[in-house]
Protein backbone atom coordinates (compact mmCIF):
# COMPACT_ATOMS: atom_id res chain seq x y z
CA UNK A 1 0.00 0.00 0.00
CA UNK A 2 1.33 3.40 -0.97
CA UNK A 3 0.13 6.99 -1.18
CA UNK A 4 1.96 9.81 -2.95
CA UNK A 5 0.72 13.40 -2.93
CA UNK A 6 1.72 16.95 -3.72
CA UNK A 7 3.35 18.60 -0.67
CA UNK A 8 0.09 20.31 0.34
CA UNK A 9 -1.49 16.87 0.76
CA UNK A 10 0.35 16.58 4.09
CA UNK A 11 -2.78 17.46 6.06
CA UNK A 12 -4.74 14.60 4.48
CA UNK A 13 -2.27 11.78 3.96
CA UNK A 14 -2.61 10.24 7.45
CA UNK A 15 -6.40 9.92 7.07
CA UNK A 16 -5.92 8.50 3.59
CA UNK A 17 -3.43 5.89 4.83
CA UNK A 18 -5.75 4.98 7.72
CA UNK A 19 -8.47 4.29 5.17
CA UNK A 20 -6.18 1.99 3.19
CA UNK A 21 -5.16 0.09 6.34
CA UNK A 22 -8.85 -0.37 7.19
CA UNK A 23 -9.40 -2.12 3.87
CA UNK A 24 -10.48 1.02 2.08
CA UNK A 25 -9.90 1.15 -1.64
CA UNK A 26 -7.42 3.39 -3.45
CA UNK A 27 -10.45 5.45 -4.54
CA UNK A 28 -11.48 5.89 -0.87
CA UNK A 29 -7.98 6.94 0.13
CA UNK A 30 -7.71 9.51 -2.62
CA UNK A 31 -11.11 11.00 -1.83
CA UNK A 32 -10.51 11.09 1.93
CA UNK A 33 -7.07 12.66 1.61
CA UNK A 34 -8.23 15.36 -0.77
CA UNK A 35 -11.32 16.23 1.29
CA UNK A 36 -9.08 17.24 4.19
CA UNK A 37 -7.21 19.68 1.96
CA UNK A 38 -10.44 21.00 0.42
CA UNK A 39 -11.78 21.89 3.87
CA UNK A 40 -8.53 23.57 4.99
CA UNK A 41 -8.99 27.38 4.92
CA UNK A 42 -5.23 27.94 4.89
CA UNK A 43 -4.76 26.32 1.47
CA UNK A 44 -5.78 29.02 -0.99
CA UNK A 45 -5.43 26.84 -4.08
CA UNK A 46 -7.89 24.08 -3.24
CA UNK A 47 -11.52 23.94 -2.07
CA UNK A 48 -12.92 26.25 0.59
CA UNK A 49 -11.22 29.65 0.79
CA UNK A 50 -9.29 29.25 -2.43
CA UNK A 51 -8.40 32.32 -4.45
CA UNK A 52 -11.48 33.38 -6.45
CA UNK A 53 -11.81 34.35 -10.10
CA UNK A 54 -11.52 37.95 -11.27
CA UNK A 55 -15.12 38.62 -10.18
CA UNK A 56 -14.45 37.29 -6.67
CA UNK A 57 -16.32 33.99 -7.21
CA UNK A 58 -14.78 30.68 -6.17
CA UNK A 59 -15.06 28.09 -8.97
CA UNK A 60 -13.76 24.61 -8.13
CA UNK A 61 -12.43 21.87 -10.44
CA UNK A 62 -11.71 18.23 -9.49
CA UNK A 63 -11.40 14.75 -10.96
CA UNK A 64 -10.87 11.18 -9.81
CA UNK A 65 -9.86 8.14 -11.87
CA UNK A 66 -10.13 4.45 -11.03
CA UNK A 67 -7.19 2.53 -12.48
CA UNK A 68 -9.09 -0.79 -12.35
CA UNK A 69 -11.67 0.20 -14.92
CA UNK A 70 -10.44 3.54 -16.29
CA UNK A 71 -13.74 4.93 -15.05
CA UNK A 72 -13.58 8.53 -13.95
CA UNK A 73 -15.66 11.43 -12.76
CA UNK A 74 -15.03 15.17 -12.78
CA UNK A 75 -16.57 18.53 -12.03
CA UNK A 76 -15.52 21.99 -13.16
CA UNK A 77 -16.50 25.57 -12.28
CA UNK A 78 -18.57 24.35 -9.34
CA UNK A 79 -19.66 26.97 -6.81
CA UNK A 80 -20.98 26.49 -3.31
CA UNK A 81 -19.85 22.90 -2.65
CA UNK A 82 -16.49 22.54 -0.88
CA UNK A 83 -15.89 18.82 -1.49
CA UNK A 84 -15.40 18.89 -5.25
CA UNK A 85 -13.56 15.55 -5.20
CA UNK A 86 -16.58 13.81 -3.65
CA UNK A 87 -18.96 15.28 -6.20
CA UNK A 88 -16.52 14.22 -8.95
CA UNK A 89 -16.49 10.68 -7.58
CA UNK A 90 -20.28 10.61 -7.56
CA UNK A 91 -20.38 11.64 -11.23
CA UNK A 92 -18.62 8.31 -11.75
CA UNK A 93 -20.36 6.22 -9.07
CA UNK A 94 -23.91 7.23 -10.03
CA UNK A 95 -23.25 5.72 -13.44
CA UNK A 96 -24.16 8.81 -15.41
CA UNK A 97 -23.35 8.45 -19.08
CA UNK A 98 -20.95 11.38 -18.50
CA UNK A 99 -17.48 11.98 -17.14
CA UNK A 100 -17.37 15.76 -16.60
CA UNK A 101 -20.08 18.15 -15.38
CA UNK A 102 -19.41 21.88 -15.32
CA UNK A 103 -20.91 25.04 -13.87
CA UNK A 104 -24.65 25.16 -13.22
CA UNK A 105 -24.99 21.51 -14.26
CA UNK A 106 -22.36 20.39 -11.74
CA UNK A 107 -24.10 22.44 -9.03
CA UNK A 108 -27.48 20.99 -9.94
CA UNK A 109 -26.03 17.46 -9.74
CA UNK A 110 -24.39 18.26 -6.38
CA UNK A 111 -27.76 19.44 -5.03
CA UNK A 112 -29.52 16.38 -6.42
CA UNK A 113 -27.17 13.99 -4.57
CA UNK A 114 -27.32 16.12 -1.40
CA UNK A 115 -23.63 16.98 -1.49
CA UNK A 116 -22.56 19.17 1.41
CA UNK A 117 -23.09 22.83 0.50
CA UNK A 118 -21.55 25.82 2.30
CA UNK A 119 -23.21 29.20 2.05
CA UNK A 120 -20.00 31.21 2.15
CA UNK A 121 -16.96 29.67 0.47
CA UNK A 122 -14.58 32.56 1.17
CA UNK A 123 -13.24 34.20 4.30
CA UNK A 124 -13.06 37.99 4.66
CA UNK A 125 -9.28 37.65 4.56
CA UNK A 126 -9.29 36.22 1.03
CA UNK A 127 -11.95 38.69 -0.14
CA UNK A 128 -9.65 41.46 1.08
CA UNK A 129 -6.69 39.98 -0.84
CA UNK A 130 -8.81 39.86 -4.01
CA UNK A 131 -10.13 43.40 -3.53
CA UNK A 132 -6.62 44.67 -2.77
CA UNK A 133 -5.16 43.04 -5.87
CA UNK A 134 -7.77 44.65 -8.10
CA UNK A 135 -7.51 48.03 -6.39
CA UNK A 136 -3.73 48.02 -6.76
CA UNK A 137 -4.20 47.70 -10.51
CA UNK A 138 -6.29 50.85 -10.98
CA UNK A 139 -4.92 54.33 -11.58
CA UNK A 140 -6.78 55.66 -8.53
CA UNK A 141 -6.05 52.70 -6.24
CA UNK A 142 -9.78 52.27 -5.74
CA UNK A 143 -11.55 48.95 -5.98
CA UNK A 144 -13.27 48.77 -9.39
CA UNK A 145 -16.84 47.60 -9.65
CA UNK A 146 -16.94 44.81 -12.20
CA UNK A 147 -20.39 43.77 -13.37
CA UNK A 148 -21.64 41.05 -15.71
CA UNK A 149 -21.10 43.40 -18.64
CA UNK A 150 -17.64 44.68 -17.73
CA UNK A 151 -14.88 43.90 -20.21
CA UNK A 152 -12.47 41.51 -18.51
CA UNK A 153 -9.88 40.92 -21.22
CA UNK A 154 -7.37 43.28 -19.65
CA UNK A 155 -8.28 42.55 -16.07
CA UNK A 156 -7.72 38.84 -16.48
CA UNK A 157 -4.03 39.44 -17.16
CA UNK A 158 -3.83 39.64 -13.37
CA UNK A 159 -4.38 35.88 -13.48
CA UNK A 160 -0.70 35.53 -14.27
CA UNK A 161 0.08 36.93 -10.81
CA UNK A 162 3.23 34.87 -10.25
CA UNK A 163 2.73 34.54 -6.53
CA UNK A 164 -0.64 32.92 -6.94
CA UNK A 165 -0.40 30.63 -9.95
CA UNK A 166 0.97 27.64 -8.02
CA UNK A 167 -1.28 25.26 -6.14
CA UNK A 168 -3.72 22.37 -6.55
CA UNK A 169 -3.60 19.05 -4.68
CA UNK A 170 -2.73 15.62 -6.13
CA UNK A 171 -3.23 12.23 -4.46
CA UNK A 172 -2.35 8.84 -5.98
CA UNK A 173 -2.88 5.59 -4.03
CA UNK A 174 -2.24 1.87 -4.43
CA UNK A 175 -4.45 -0.23 -2.14
CA UNK A 176 -4.10 -3.72 -0.68
CA UNK A 177 -5.58 -5.25 -3.84
CA UNK A 178 -2.98 -3.52 -5.99
CA UNK A 179 -5.59 -1.17 -7.43
CA UNK A 180 -4.50 2.36 -8.32
CA UNK A 181 -6.54 5.58 -8.15
CA UNK A 182 -5.62 9.22 -8.75
CA UNK A 183 -7.36 12.44 -7.78
CA UNK A 184 -6.83 16.16 -8.30
CA UNK A 185 -8.65 19.17 -6.84
CA UNK A 186 -8.12 22.89 -7.31
CA UNK A 187 -9.62 26.35 -7.21
CA UNK A 188 -7.56 27.10 -10.31
CA UNK A 189 -5.60 30.23 -11.07
CA UNK A 190 -6.20 33.15 -8.79
CA UNK A 191 -8.12 35.92 -10.57
CA UNK A 192 -8.89 33.71 -13.59
CA UNK A 193 -11.42 34.65 -16.26
CA UNK A 194 -14.85 33.35 -15.16
CA UNK A 195 -15.40 29.99 -16.80
CA UNK A 196 -11.72 29.13 -17.14
CA UNK A 197 -11.18 25.38 -16.64
CA UNK A 198 -7.72 24.02 -15.90
CA UNK A 199 -6.18 20.58 -16.29
CA UNK A 200 -7.36 19.20 -12.95
CA UNK A 201 -10.81 18.02 -14.12
CA UNK A 202 -9.56 16.96 -17.56
CA UNK A 203 -8.81 13.24 -17.60
CA UNK A 204 -5.59 12.77 -19.53
CA UNK A 205 -4.35 16.30 -18.86
CA UNK A 206 -3.99 16.69 -15.07
CA UNK A 207 -4.96 13.17 -14.02
CA UNK A 208 -4.63 9.61 -15.30
CA UNK A 209 -4.54 6.15 -13.69
CA UNK A 210 -4.32 2.68 -15.18
CA UNK A 211 -3.69 -0.37 -12.98
CA UNK A 212 -1.70 -2.05 -15.72
CA UNK A 213 0.94 0.67 -15.92
CA UNK A 214 0.72 3.40 -13.30
CA UNK A 215 -0.67 6.87 -12.69
CA UNK A 216 0.21 10.54 -12.95
CA UNK A 217 -1.24 13.78 -11.55
CA UNK A 218 -0.20 17.37 -12.24
CA UNK A 219 -0.06 20.77 -10.60
CA UNK A 220 1.04 24.02 -12.17
CA UNK A 221 -0.05 25.87 -15.26
CA UNK A 222 -2.95 23.68 -16.30
CA UNK A 223 -3.18 25.10 -19.79
CA UNK A 224 0.14 23.43 -20.56
CA UNK A 225 -0.93 20.00 -19.31
CA UNK A 226 -4.14 20.29 -21.36
CA UNK A 227 -2.21 21.15 -24.51
CA UNK A 228 0.32 18.34 -24.06
CA UNK A 229 -1.97 15.70 -22.53
CA UNK A 230 0.65 15.32 -19.82
CA UNK A 231 -0.81 12.75 -17.40
CA UNK A 232 -1.94 10.43 -20.20
CA UNK A 233 1.38 10.84 -22.00
CA UNK A 234 3.31 9.68 -18.96
CA UNK A 235 1.15 6.58 -18.53
CA UNK A 236 1.35 5.85 -22.25
CA UNK A 237 5.14 6.06 -22.07
CA UNK A 238 4.97 3.46 -19.27
CA UNK A 239 2.75 1.32 -21.49
CA UNK A 240 5.37 1.60 -24.23
CA UNK A 241 7.91 0.09 -21.85
CA UNK A 242 9.82 3.10 -20.54
CA UNK A 243 10.96 2.93 -16.91
CA UNK A 244 9.11 5.38 -14.64
CA UNK A 245 11.83 8.03 -14.48
CA UNK A 246 12.27 8.09 -18.24
CA UNK A 247 8.50 8.20 -18.83
CA UNK A 248 8.09 11.06 -16.36
CA UNK A 249 11.00 13.06 -17.78
CA UNK A 250 9.69 12.59 -21.32
CA UNK A 251 6.22 13.84 -20.33
CA UNK A 252 7.85 16.99 -18.96
CA UNK A 253 10.24 17.37 -21.91
CA UNK A 254 7.21 17.25 -24.25
CA UNK A 255 6.14 20.57 -22.71
CA UNK A 256 9.15 22.25 -24.31
CA UNK A 257 7.36 21.97 -27.64
CA UNK A 258 4.63 24.36 -26.52
CA UNK A 259 4.87 27.85 -27.92
CA UNK A 260 2.95 30.95 -26.89
CA UNK A 261 3.15 33.53 -24.16
CA UNK A 262 2.02 31.48 -21.21
CA UNK A 263 4.70 28.90 -20.57
CA UNK A 264 5.58 28.51 -16.93
CA UNK A 265 5.62 26.14 -14.02
CA UNK A 266 4.59 22.50 -14.27
CA UNK A 267 4.90 19.76 -11.69
CA UNK A 268 3.88 16.13 -11.69
CA UNK A 269 3.88 13.14 -9.39
CA UNK A 270 3.71 9.60 -10.74
CA UNK A 271 4.02 5.96 -9.79
CA UNK A 272 4.23 2.68 -11.65
CA UNK A 273 2.31 -0.50 -10.94
CA UNK A 274 5.21 -1.85 -8.86
CA UNK A 275 5.08 1.12 -6.49
CA UNK A 276 8.13 3.03 -7.73
CA UNK A 277 7.33 6.75 -7.50
CA UNK A 278 8.73 10.09 -8.61
CA UNK A 279 8.04 13.82 -8.48
CA UNK A 280 9.24 16.25 -11.14
CA UNK A 281 9.08 20.01 -11.39
CA UNK A 282 10.16 22.73 -13.77
CA UNK A 283 11.38 24.67 -10.73
CA UNK A 284 14.00 23.89 -8.11
CA UNK A 285 13.07 23.39 -4.48
CA UNK A 286 9.66 21.76 -4.98
CA UNK A 287 8.74 18.66 -2.99
CA UNK A 288 6.17 15.87 -2.85
CA UNK A 289 5.25 13.43 -0.11
CA UNK A 290 4.76 9.69 0.16
CA UNK A 291 3.82 7.11 2.76
CA UNK A 292 3.87 3.31 2.63
CA UNK A 293 1.76 1.19 4.96
CA UNK A 294 4.77 0.27 7.12
CA UNK A 295 5.77 3.92 7.71
CA UNK A 296 4.60 5.75 10.83
CA UNK A 297 4.27 8.99 8.92
CA UNK A 298 4.82 10.47 5.51
CA UNK A 299 8.17 11.59 4.15
CA UNK A 300 8.73 14.76 2.10
CA UNK A 301 11.20 14.47 -0.77
CA UNK A 302 12.63 16.88 -3.29
CA UNK A 303 11.33 16.75 -6.86
CA UNK A 304 13.77 16.26 -9.68
CA UNK A 305 13.99 19.34 -11.90
CA UNK A 306 13.24 19.13 -15.64
CA UNK A 307 13.56 22.56 -17.19
CA UNK A 308 10.76 23.38 -19.60
CA UNK A 309 10.10 27.08 -19.58
CA UNK A 310 10.65 29.46 -22.47
CA UNK A 311 13.37 30.89 -20.24
CA UNK A 312 15.41 27.90 -21.36
CA UNK A 313 14.58 28.20 -25.05
CA UNK A 314 17.11 26.19 -27.01
CA UNK A 315 16.92 23.14 -24.79
CA UNK A 316 16.91 19.99 -26.90
CA UNK A 317 13.48 18.55 -27.67
CA UNK A 318 14.91 14.99 -27.04
N1 LIG B 1 -3.20 22.99 -12.37
C1 LIG B 1 -4.33 23.63 -11.89
C2 LIG B 1 -4.88 24.64 -12.78
O1 LIG B 1 -4.21 25.08 -13.70
O2 LIG B 1 -6.01 25.03 -12.59
How is this fold's topology laid out?
Elements (H helix, E strand, L loop, with lengths): L1 E5 L6 H9 L4 H14 L20 E7 L4 E8 L5 H10 L6 E3 H10 L11 H12 L33 E6 L5 E7 L20 E4 L3 E7 L1 H7 L1 H10 L4 H10 L12 E7 L4 E5 L5 E6 L6 E4 L1 E2 L13
Parallel strand pairs: 3-4, 10-13
Antiparallel strand pairs: 1-5, 1-11, 2-3, 2-6, 5-6, 7-8, 8-9, 9-10, 11-12
Helix pairs in contact: 1-2, 2-3, 7-8
The protein binds glycine (GLY).
The site of glycine has 12 residues, from strand 8.
The largest pleated sheet is described as: 8 strands, mixed
Radius of gyration, Cα only, in angstroms? 19 Å
Ligands bound to this protein structure: glycine
CATH class: Alpha Beta
How far apart lie the N and C ends?
Answer: 34 Å
Strand order of the largest sheet: 4-3-2-6-5-1-11-12
| Share in β-strands | 15-25%
- Integer count of domains: 1
| Number of alpha- plus pi-helical segments | 8
Q: What structural class results from the helix and strand content?
A: alpha+beta
* CATH fold assignment: Glutamine Phosphoribosylpyrophosphate, subunit 1, domain 1
The low-confidence parts are none
Query: Looking at the structure, what is the overall shape?
Result: globular
CATH architecture: 4-Layer Sandwich
CATH homologous superfamily identity: (Glycosyl)asparaginase
Average per-residue pLDDT, rounded, comes to 92
Q: How much helicity do the residues have? A: 25-40%
The beta-strand count equals 13
Give the ordered list of helices and strands: EHHEEHEHHEEEEHHHEEEEE
Amino acid sequence: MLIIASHNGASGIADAMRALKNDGSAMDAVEIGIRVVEADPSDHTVGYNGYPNILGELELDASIMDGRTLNSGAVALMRGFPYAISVARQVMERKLPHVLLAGAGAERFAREINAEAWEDMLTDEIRAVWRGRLAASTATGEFPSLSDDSPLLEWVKLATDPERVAGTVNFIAIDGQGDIAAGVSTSGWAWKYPGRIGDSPIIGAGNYADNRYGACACTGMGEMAIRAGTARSLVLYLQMGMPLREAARQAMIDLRDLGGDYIGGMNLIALDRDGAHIGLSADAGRTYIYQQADMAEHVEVEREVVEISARWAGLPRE
